[in-house]
């Protein structure tokens, strides 16, 4: 599988820009059978050394320009938390989202309409106190809290490393009216850091229908990247 090709900037016209900032990546190994039941049959699970992973990623969205014609002076911001796993389609590795919570009703409506993604409106808070970051999310009766302390930079991650497998994902897959589509983003490689976990729960993962026990064994942090967004496309044969 070519894991480098999706990192290259694609040729189709841009449809928007975003800044993803202060991202924390929490990952748990998960039973393959449990994930398989929730992922469309057209997608293959992407495993690392035979292990499937589910991720919880809270972060800040800044400078969101949803359309090329949208004035950058009207760019908006919101907090987001996504629950995801890793898949591939026809040799193309990417992400499949179980849920995406956003503290913006406009973002939820736009993403559901434009991208057919499972966005939900949630009350969210972010605090940076000294070197400790706290993310809180409440969607109805489901609450989630993550507290961490970013650590030292990891430096460039090798393409065959677990860090690259979990962090460097540039394709997403969705089904729209029975058809499998892919969307692509482009950004420089994440400036990845180690992170010390102070508090976390898997409530949003459990809400997606997946088992989640104990704290995540894998925690990473990135201060953020500038992101170009490209439109959904039908998957080419092959």
Report on this model:
With 238 residues, the protein is mainly beta. The chain has one domain (5-228): Acetoacetate decarboxylase-like (Beta Barrel). 11% of the residues lie in helices and 53% in strands. The chain has helices at residues 32-36, 105-115, 162-167, 203-207, and strands at 16-30, 44-45, 52-65, 76-89, 92-102, 119-121, 123-129, 132-139, 142-153, 171-176, 179-186, 193-200, 218-234. Strands 1, 2, 3, 4, 5, 6, 7, 8, 9, 10, 11, 12 and 13 form a 13-stranded mixed beta sheet that branches. The protein is globular. 34% of the residues are buried. The mean pLDDT is 94.
Quick gist of this model?
The chain is mainly beta and 238 residues long. 11% of the residues lie in helices and 53% in strands. It is built from four helices and 13 strands.
